[in-house]
Design goal:
By secondary structure, this protein is of the alpha/beta class. It has 9 helices and 13 strands.
Length: 269
């Protein structure tokens, strides 16, 4: 795609050179799949200046081959590419290794496009034109989230969570406090609580939650989600160690005590 991919101020590069957002002792290995030769080269050079290691591929099939022959910390994928589009590539990447995060960078900016991106396994979705600073910030945020969770997608196929003195069974939609009968949750309540659990002690992106659960991040759905967040807070208030925090301009964070936070437990039925 022959278009300007980013917005960059005259001082932005200097700001980045002075940035200390990454730990220089750990260099993240990134797979970048972008069919625009000039854009791919510019992004590769810029990311390498920011202390990332980058492998650039220019079509989806080459990207999949590279992924299967190496170990990457994160993948950045364009959507509209020859041979194999970014959505199909993301799905195959997640099948090969569900612990590898994926960020889409694309000109496709409709809500349906974003929904398909998240459904394909995307962890973030950045539309062109974008700021290089924003791309680096999003890369660091996604890597931090995965590093904090320890095993990024351990929750993908398991549905029982231990939250302080609560047990949450997503399949049964039951939230049970110790020594009490379980509370049956609505479908939306269960989906939202599961997404919060998947981001336990890290930020759950508000727009992603709206897209995944409601299918659209419009104003009315956002107000609806606020109502469900209030309900979940009410259910969890029995354990004062638990908290659903507002993260201004970003989303929500489910705070779970580390000592009792064992994440997802295998389902034994």
């Amino acid at each position: 795609m022959n278009m300007t991919p980013f917005r960059q101020s005259s001082t932005e590069e200097n700001d980045f050179q002075n940035s200390s957002t990454r730990n220089p002792s750990k260099i993240a290995h990134i797979l970048l799949v972008e069919d625009d030769h000039n854009l791919g080269a510019v992004l590769t050079e810029f990311l390498e200046m920011r202390d990332f290691s980058v492998v650039l591929c220019q079509d989806g099939e080459a990207g999949l081959k590279a992924f299967c022959s190496d170990k990457f910390d994160l993948c950045i994928l364009d959507v509209m590419m020859p041979k194999k589009d970014g959505l199909a590539l993301a799905e195959q990447i997640k099948q090969e290794n569900p612990q590898t995060p994926v960020i889409f960078v694309t000109a496709k900016d409709k809500i349906d496009d974003k929904s398909r991106g998240y459904a394909a396994g995307g962890d973030d979705y950045l539309t062109k034109p974008f700021s290089m600073e924003e791309l680096v910030l999003r890369i660091n945020a996604v890597l931090k989230r995965y590093e904090t969770s320890g095993n990024a997608n351990r929750f993908a196929t398991q549905d029982v969570y231990r939250l302080g003195s609560f047990t949450f069974d997503y399949q049964l939609r039951v939230l049970k406090h110790d020594d009490e009968d379980g509370k049956k949750l609505s479908t939306k309540e269960a989906e939202l609580l599961k997404l919060l659990c998947q981001h336990e002690n890290t930020v759950m992106n508000r727009d992603k939650a709206l897209t995944v659960i409601w299918g659209d991040d419009n104003y009315y759905n956002a107000r609806s989600m606020d109502v469900f967040i209030t309900k979940l807070r009410k259910y969890l208030k029995v354990d004062d160690r638990l908290e659903i925090m507002n993260v201004h301009g970003t989303g929500y964070k489910l705070i779970v005590p580390r000592a009792n936070s064992t994440g997802i437990r295998p389902v034994t039925r």
